[in-house]
Fold these 2 entries.
Entry 1:
Amino acid sequence: MIFYFSGTGNTKWVAQQLAAATGEQLLYIPDELKRGSMDYTLQDDERLGFCFPTHGWQPPRIVRDFIRKATFHHSGYVYAVTTCGDNMGHAMRILNKELAAKGLHAESTFAVLMPESNVCFSFLHLDTPEREHQKKEQAKGTVAHICQVVKERQKGVNELIKGAIPFTYTYVIGGYYNKHLITDEKFWVDQEACIQCGLCSKLCPVDDIEGLPPRWKHDGSCTNCLACYHHCPQHAIHWGKMKRGQYYFNRREDRK
């Protein structure tokens, strides 16, 4: 089984490659949470994989909540893959702490550099089209390699992009981000630009958006995946006061 979460499609693409390479079932974490029954029994020869984007140098809250609520009957090979725009700090350390509470440990861990999508920090910017293309081309080789390692069930392979100061990224800057910026309070809609297509509501993994024009529920469920922001066809959704561009996987290819 492969459990994944993705907001802009980077991690979904990686998870799909792993599913195709291993022939194993691909499960979307928000759907599993909504389904309610999260008791999973894996076959003896079945791998258990977790794929997620790095949010503020940590695993997304929705991924951590899922692991805490789920039960895994499994004694085989476990691995984890995260995507990041620059580096992922100690995100895998936090993930393995969550898994340890379930009697599990990711025996091999990987990071895949993908186009940046975070528009919530003033010092982070989306990649140029050239850099975006470069990252995607590089990722093809990286993911092919990961698929081979996972297929062979290799243990002790930890190919991560922690950055120069991973503790500071994850526990100081990331700690602030995940405590104060994982919120729907800063989203707002340019009602003149909004065409009331409802796409943002449809794509929200936690059903935090309702009505037309869209309104956020402010009920604490937002995981700040930015799917609503990046997929809006009119760029009518904004976050805070900063005006940034949009990105989702294959966006520019879709527009050709």
Entry 2:
Amino acid sequence: MAITLTETAATRVRTFLENRGKGVGLRLGVKTTGCSGMAYVLEFVDELNDEDEVFEDHGVKVIIDKKSLVYLDGTQLDYVKEGLNEGFEFNNPNSKGECGCGESFNV
């Protein structure tokens, strides 16, 4: 089981953490919502929980709870810029489809 980051995503996360002045890493998760059923959750973590799984890639700790890991195992997080748009992109091999607006996915 693993979650990975591209170098571009890792650089962006490190920049966010440095600007915050605190934090041990980035939490990835899922929540039930949207037209397709599940949405990705990203948040900075200041303290680890006992049930957290921690992966490290390119010097960044990626924290995920065990329930979300089932849906995100093998996912690579990237950071992309296209024209005026920029943001994190999930390359999730478990996703069977996404809604038209791109805000949610199903497995």
